[in-house]
Amino acid sequence: MSLLQSTQFRPDPSATTARRAFIRAWPDFQNPAAWIVALILVIMPLIASGFFLIEIFATTLILGVIALSLMFLAGYGGMVSLMQLTIAGFAGYMVAVFGVSANTNISLGWPWWLATPMALALATLFGTLGGALAVRTEGIYTIMITLAIGAAFYYFTNQNWAIFNGHTGINTVATPHFWGVDWRADIAFYYITLGVAAICYFAVQYVSRAPFGLALQGVRDNSRRMAALGFNPNAHRIAAYAFAAFIAGLGGVLQVWNYRQISPGSVSVGACIDVLIIAVVGGITRPIGPFIGALIFVLLRTFALDVLIKFGLDGNRFRLLIGLGFLAIVFWSSDGVIGLWERWRRRNASSASRAGGRHG
To answer: For a Cys-Cys bond, which of 69, 208, 324, 345 suits 248, CB 3.0-4.6 Å?
Structure first.
């Protein structure tokens, strides 16, 4: 029996491969709690102020999308990439360079509907080339080469003035206006962000259960056996980097629209590591994990400053809280918050089963 045949996603002769993959992309929504969360997200503008809508929830969704690209590579491909925020930042810079901004000596002045596809295409190409380098290594070396790409891009943007405007960055980047709507207005931008996050989430769910995703997981588990079966492990890995780069690029476009500016600080090494923390804290094996981790990270980053200051501590130490939380979650669960939740559910189910057995 081949590796793909032994997986839990065994082919069903009664349905086409595409239809099977699509149906299996909805397992999370068999849980009523998932529908409740989805409903809350849809009606969020009715119950949240502009600050919470953008600074908490929209920012969570943007960081979740970027971390989702890392989760796809690590969870399904076994490749931990620290350049996903770099790819997102590259897309953001390209939006600013090709689009309209206050830096008229740098920006080319293209309309957003031309600048955005160009930025996504270049970001995908950038991530694919970086992935082509990374797949030649394994383990810690993959982490180091992707970190090196991120660090090199950070220093390049910081020192290049002709294209990236050096450490000052590019300011007042124009955002979309069409159908008479300012799509950077709080409610409109929230729904754009929610829509992109939902599309990315279901795309990852679908791809992970499609033939390509199953082959990628087979390469992750045993690349030699997959090669013996006629698959090209490196080609699958590079394609995975391309797919993840496109998702990260979408997050980068949303990020530059959110802040209306981009600078080297947006692609710093520390920020790259933050994305890894977000993905690991939420859970690296399911697409919902990065969004959970992003929410925890954003809440700590936003409110830990005030808490620390009230206790007379330096507000910049909020990263200490994030680090302690990261260590605690990883110590108790190798799959982040999702792992803790699953463990709690199994414990409750077993307790209820034992209680039922005693009463029976």
So the answer is: 69
Cα–Cα distances in Å, from 30 out to 23, 262, 310?
Answer: 11, 40, 43
Token pair belonging to 109: 């002045």
Write out the H or E segment, with its range, that includes residue 145. Answer: helix 140-159
Q: Which amino acid is at 169?
A: G
pTM of the model as a whole:
0.87
What is the secondary structure of 197-259 as a DSSP string? HHHHHHHHHHHHHSHHHHHHHHHHH-HHHHHHTT--HHHHHHHHHHHHHHHHHHHHHHHHHHH
Question: How far is 352 from 145, CA to CA, in rounded Å?
Answer: 49
Q: How far is residue 217's CA from residue 208's CA, in Å, rounded to a whole number?
A: 8
Q: Give buried/exposed letters for 98-132 (b at 16+ CB in 10 A, else e).
A: bbbbebeeebeebebeebbebbbebbbebbbebbe
Residue 160 half-sphere exposure toward CB, CA atoms < 13 A? 14
pLDDT (tens digit per residue) in 222-235: 999 999 999 999 99
pLDDT for res 157: 95
Average of per-residue pLDDT values in the chain: 85
pLDDT digits 0-9 by tens, 273-327: 999 989 988 888 889 999 999 998 998 888 877 776 776 666 566 677 777 777 7
What gap in Å lies between CA 154 and CA 84, rounded to an integer? 13
- Over residues 249-270, mean pLDDT: 94
Half-sphere exposure of 94 (CA within 13 A, CB side): 24
